C-alpha cells in the first residue's frame, strides 16, 4: 500500500489573508485568488527558497513542480535546506520540518517614467510561507521528480528514463503545502506626477516575455531520433 501523504483538498475559495501575506505596501496589487496563484506558479519553473541558518537568512535558487495544492522543491541530499528539513529546530525527536519562504516572479515589462522615482516594472509574483518537509517515501519522490521535470518542459517525464534507485538516493525533494499564499501583480504604464507630464522625456513600457530558442540536438544523439511534438510546440 502506498504511504503517500494525503493531498490537501482542492478548493476554489481564495487563500486566507494572514499577517505574513498581507503586504504593508501596494496592497491593491495583492491577490489571494487560487486560479491566479496557480497560473503564476505553473508558468515558471525556478523559485527562490529562503530560510534561516545559524541565525542568518539564506536564499537559494532551485527548481520546483506543482501538484494541486502542493509544491515539490528539488535539491541535493547534501544541501542545507534538505538536511535541516529532516530534523526539528531543537534537534530532539518530533515532527521535522524547515520554516521557509518560497517566491516566484515573472517580469513582464520595464516601466519608464519621466522621473527616476516613478520607474518600475510590471510583474507577477507569488510568495508562499510554510514548513517544508523532506520527502522520504520512494513513490512520492518519483511522482514529485516527474512533476519537477514536467514543470520545466511539459511532457518530458514520459520521454526520458525514470530515475533509478541510486539516483533517487542521491536526490532530495522538499514538500511545501500551499496554505499561506499570496500573489502580487503590477500592470499598466508609468504613474508620473502631474507636474512632470510636460517634461520632454520618453515614457512608457518596454514589454518583456520569455522566448524558447530552436532546440539544438546533442552531438551524440542518433540522427534517427526526431524532435518530439512537445518540444516543437515550444
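^ C-alpha cells above, recovered residues below v
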Amino acid at each position: 500500500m502506498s504511504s503517500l501523504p494525503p493531498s490537501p483538498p482542492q478548493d476554489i475559495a481564495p487563500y486566507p489573508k494572514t499577517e505574513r501575506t498581507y503586504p504593508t505596501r501596494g496592497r491593491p496589487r495583492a491577490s489571494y485568488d487560487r486560479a491566479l496563484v496557480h497560473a503564476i506558479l505553473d508558468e515558471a519553473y525556478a523559485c527562490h527558497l529562503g530560510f534561516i541558518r545559524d541565525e542568518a537568512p539564506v536564499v537559494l535558487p532551485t527548481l520546483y513542480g506543482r501538484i494541486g495544492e502542493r509544491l515539490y522543491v528539488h535539491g541535493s541530499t547534501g544541501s542545507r535546506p534538505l538536511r535541516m528539513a529532516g530534523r526539528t529546530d531543537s534537534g530532539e525527536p518530533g515532527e521535522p520540518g524547515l520554516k521557509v519562504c518560497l517566491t516566484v516572479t515573472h517580469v513582464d515589462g520595464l516601466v519608464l517614467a519621466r522621473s527616476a522615482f516613478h520607474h518600475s516594472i510590471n510583474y507577477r509574483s507569488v510568495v508562499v510561507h510554510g514548513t517544508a518537509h523532506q520527502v522520504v517515501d520512494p513513490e512520492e519522490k518519483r511522482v514529485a521528480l516527474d512533476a519537477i521535470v514536467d514543470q520545466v518542459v511539459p511532457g518530458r517525464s514520459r520521454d526520458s528514463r525514470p530515475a533509478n534507485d541510486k539516483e533517487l538516493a542521491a536526490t532530495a525533494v522538499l514538500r511545501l503545502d500551499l496554505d499561506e499564499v499570496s500573489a502580487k501583480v503590477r500592470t499598466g504604464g508609468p504613474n508620473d506626477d502631474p507636474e512632470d507630464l510636460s517634461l520632454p522625456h520618453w515614457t512608457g513600457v518596454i514589454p518583456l516575455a520569455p522566448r524558447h530558442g530552436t532546440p539544438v540536438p546533442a552531438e551524440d544523439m542518433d540522427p534517427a531520433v526526431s524532435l518530439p511534438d512537445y518540444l516543437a510546440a515550444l
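The two ends are 38 Å apart (CA to CA).
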